[in-house]
C-alpha cells in the first residue's frame, strides 16, 4: 500500500513536470490498486472484507433511513400535520390511542393549542386522526433510525470492528442523531406557544425549522461520506495543482448547495413560496418594492418573506451556475477516472432539474407533491456533490 501511495506521487509529480504524456500517466494510475490504506478505510484493519462491508452497509442503510425521515418530515409539514401531537415522551409516545375515548382525549389536548383555536376550529375527529398519524409516522421513523443506528454501533464496537477513528466518528454521528430528535421537539414547541395573534398563521419558527433541516442534512452527509469511504473506496488520482483547485471548487459547490438548501428551509418556514408566484420577475419587477421593508435591515434576510424568497432564487441560480462551472472544469481536467465523470454528470443533471422543480413549485403555488419532490431533489443534489467530493478527496501521505 505504501508502494501504491509512493507510485501515485511519482506519477503525479511527473505529470506536473510534463515528463510523460497524460495518457501514459493516467494508464499507470488506473493500474494501481484502489486505496484501501489504513487512512482511507476507517474500520479496523484486522477484519475481513465481508465484515467491513457489513459496517459499510449499516451506515448506508442509516443514511437511506435519514432520507426517508426528511421526506416524511417534509410531507408532514406540507400537509400541516406537524403540530398535532402536543407532547413528547420517548417510550409512552410510541403507543397510539386505541379506543374512541383515547382519541377524544388526544383531540381535546390539541384543541387547547393555537393551531386549532385560530386555524382548525371546525376540524373533525377524522381529519385530526389524519394529521396525527402523519406526525406519529415521522416520530416513529425517527425512533427506528435510533434503533437501527445505536444497536449495531454498540455491537460493532463490542466486537472490535471499529477502529479508534471510526468509534469517534460513529459516536459523533450518534450524538447528532440524538440532537436531531431534540431539535425536532424544540421546533414543534415554537408552534405550540400561546403568543400568536388571531390574524397569525400558527407555525413553527423558521429559525428552528432551518436548524432541524440543516442538522438532518449534516447527519445525512456524515453517514453518506462514511459509508462511501468503506463501500466505494477512492480510486487513485494525480496530485497535480489542477486537481487541487478542482477539489476546492467541488468543496465550495457542496457548501453552496448546503447554504441554498438552508435558505429553502426559511422559504418553507415562512410560507414565502406563496408570495410572488411569478418567474423570473417578482410581480413585474426584478427588485420587489418591499424587499427591504423590515427594520432593522438585517431582519429582512430571515423574517421578510419577500427577501427570503428573493435570496433563495438568487442562491438557487448561483448554485446552478457553480454546479455547471464545476462540471465544465471536471471535463477539462486530465487524468480523472470515469467514476468522477459520472458523479459530475449526475450532479449537473440534478442541478438543472432542481431549479426547474423550484420554479414549478413556485408557479403552481406550492402543491405538496412538487414541494416534497423539490425538497428531496436538494438531498439528491447534495448526494452527488458529496460523492464527487469524496472521489476527489486528498489521499493522505
Ligand atoms: C439548486 C437550487 C436549489 C436548492 C438546493 C433548493 C432547495 C430547497 C429546499 C431544501 C427547500 C425547503 C423545502 C422544505 O423544507 O420543505 C426549498 C424550498 C423552496 N424552493 Fe428551492 N432550491 C433551489 C432552487 C430553487 C429555485 C430556483 C426556486 C424558484 C425560483 C425555488 C423555489 C422554492 C420554493 C417556492 C420553496 C418553498 C416550498 C415549500 O414551501 O415547501 N428553489 N428549496
TrEMBL record:
InterPro entries, A to Z: COX15/CtaA_fam, HemeA_Synthase_type2
Pathway: Porphyrin-containing compound metabolism; heme A biosynthesis; heme A from heme O: step 1/1
Swiss-Prot/TrEMBL GO biological process terms: heme A biosynthetic process
GO molecular function: heme A synthase activity; metal ion binding; oxidoreductase activity, acting on NAD(P)H, heme protein as acceptor
Pfam families referenced in this protein's UniProt entry, alphabetically: COX15-CtaA
Origin: domain of life: Eukaryota
Membrane-spanning ranges: 55-75, 140-158, 170-188, 213-234, 255-276, 340-366
Keywords assigned: Heme biosynthesis, Iron, Membrane, Metal-binding, Oxidoreductase, Transmembrane, Transmembrane helix
Broad class of the protein's primary localization: membrane
Cofactor: heme b
Mode of membrane association: Multi-pass membrane protein
Location of this chain's protein in the cell: Membrane
GO CC, any one term: mitochondrial inner membrane
Keyword Transmembrane listed: yes
Catalysed reactions, as listed in the record: Fe(II)-heme o + 2 A + H2O = Fe(II)-heme a + 2 AH2
PANTHER family documented for this protein: CYTOCHROME C OXIDASE ASSEMBLY PROTEIN COX15 (PTHR23289), CYTOCHROME C OXIDASE ASSEMBLY PROTEIN COX15 HOMOLOG (PTHR23289:SF2)
Protein name from the UniProt record: Cytochrome c oxidase assembly protein COX15 homolog
Lineage, top ranks: Eukaryota, Metazoa, Chordata, Tunicata, Ascidiacea
Amino acid at each position: 500500500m505504501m508502494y501504491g501511495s509512493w507510485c501515485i506521487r511519482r506519477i503525479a509529480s511527473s505529470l506536473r513536470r510534463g515528463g510523460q504524456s497524460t495518457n501514459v500517466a493516467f494508464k499507470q494510475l488506473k493500474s494501481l490498486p484502489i486505496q484501501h490504506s489504513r487512512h482511507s478505510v476507517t474500520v479496523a484493519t484486522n477484519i475481513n472484507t465481508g465484515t467491513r462491508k457489513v459496517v459499510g452497509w449499516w451506515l448506508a442503510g442509516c443514511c437511506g433511513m435519514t432520507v426517508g425521515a426528511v421526506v416524511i418530515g417534509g410531507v408532514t409539514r406540507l400537509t400541516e400535520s406537524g403540530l398535532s401531537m402536543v407532547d413528547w415522551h420517548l417510550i409512552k409516545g410510541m403507543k397510539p390511542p386505541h379506543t374512541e375515548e383515547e382519541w377524544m382525549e388526544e383531540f381535546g389536548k390539541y384543541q387547547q393549542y393555537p393551531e386549532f383555536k385560530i386555524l382548525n376550529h371546525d376540524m373533525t375527529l377524522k381529519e385530526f386522526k389524519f394529521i396525527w398519524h402523519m406526525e406519529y409516522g415521522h416520530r416513529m421513523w425517527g425512533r427506528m433510525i435510533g434503533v437501527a443506528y445505536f444497536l449495531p454501533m454498540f455491537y460493532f464496537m463490542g466486537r472490535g470492528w471499529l477502529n479508534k477513528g471510526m468509534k469517534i466518528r460513529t459516536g459523533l454521528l450518534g450524538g447528532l442523531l440524538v440532537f436531531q430528535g431534540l431539535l425536532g421537539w424544540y421546533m414543534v414547541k415554537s408552534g405550540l406557544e400561546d403568543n400568536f395573534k388571531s390574524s397569525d398563521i400558527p407555525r413553527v419558527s423558521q429559525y428552528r425549522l432551518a436548524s432541524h433541516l440543516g442538522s438532518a442534512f449534516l447527519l445525512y452527509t456524515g453517514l453518506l461520506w462514511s459509508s462511501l469511504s468503506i463501500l466505494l473506496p477512492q480510486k487513485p488520482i494525480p496530485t497535480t495543482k489542477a486537481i487541487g483547485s478542482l477539489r476546492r471548487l467541488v468543496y465550495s459547490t457542496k457548501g453552496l448547495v448546503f447554504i441554498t438548501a438552508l435558505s429553502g428551509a426559511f422559504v418553507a418556514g415562512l410560507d414565502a413560496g406563496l408570495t410572488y408566484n411569478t418567474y423570473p420577475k417578482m410581480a413585474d419587477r426584478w427588485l420587489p418594492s418591499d424587499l427591504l421593508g423590515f427594520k432593522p435591515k438585517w431582519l429582512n434576510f430571515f423574517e421578510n418573506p419577500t427577501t427570503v424568497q428573493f435570496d433563495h432564487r438568487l442562491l438557487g441560480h448561483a448554485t446552478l451556475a457553480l454546479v455547471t462551472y464545476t462540471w465544465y472544469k471536471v471535463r477539462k481536467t486530465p487524468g480523472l477516472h470515469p467514476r468522477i465523470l459520472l458523479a459530475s454528470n449526475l450532479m449537473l443533471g440534478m442541478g438543472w432539474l432542481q431549479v426547474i422543480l423550484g420554479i414549478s413549485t413556485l408557479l403552481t403555488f406550492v402543491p405538496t407533491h412538487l414541494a416534497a419532490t423539490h425538497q428531496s431533489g436538494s438531498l439528491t443534489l447534495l448526494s452527488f456533490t458529496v460523492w464527487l467530493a469524496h472521489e476527489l478527496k486528498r489521499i493522505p501521505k
